[in-house]
# Entry
Amino acid sequence: MDVSIDAITNNIQLALAPVFLLTAVATLLNAISVRLARNVDRMRAIQNTLYSGEPKEGRVLEHMQQEANEFKFRGRLCTLAIFFDVLSGILISLTVLELFFFQAGAVRSLQTTYVIWTFVLGLISFMTSLSVVLAEVVYAYRSAGWNFPKQY
# Structure
């Protein structure tokens, strides 16, 4: 094991390269969390309106119930996206640890296939999270109440 300052610096740089991907994971996680919070807030507002008995007209009541169901589905999509984003962060963090220990010589039995698999699975998980977010955004646009019945 080389303990020169150059070797240590090189090992740290190599191990920390995937950390920049963690910034993207954290940014996406923040964006999804904001969308989920807005979904929950809107869902609570709809439920309060429905439970207060305010909408008397059948069309308005039916539309609000449909909207509540759509927000429930959107919340599930956001939760699924958060799951894959967090999984991506965990896998990329494992990649960083594996690279650091591998380069430092602390783990001799570590095979490069572990590093490859954790990094690739982390990227696939991140792409899955992005795809679910895209699906949620498209669904949100399509389910927007463009044809809301006249106010009650």
Q: What stands out?
A: The mean pLDDT is 83. Residues 66 and 143 are 9 Å apart (CA to CA). The two ends are 76 Å apart (CA to CA).
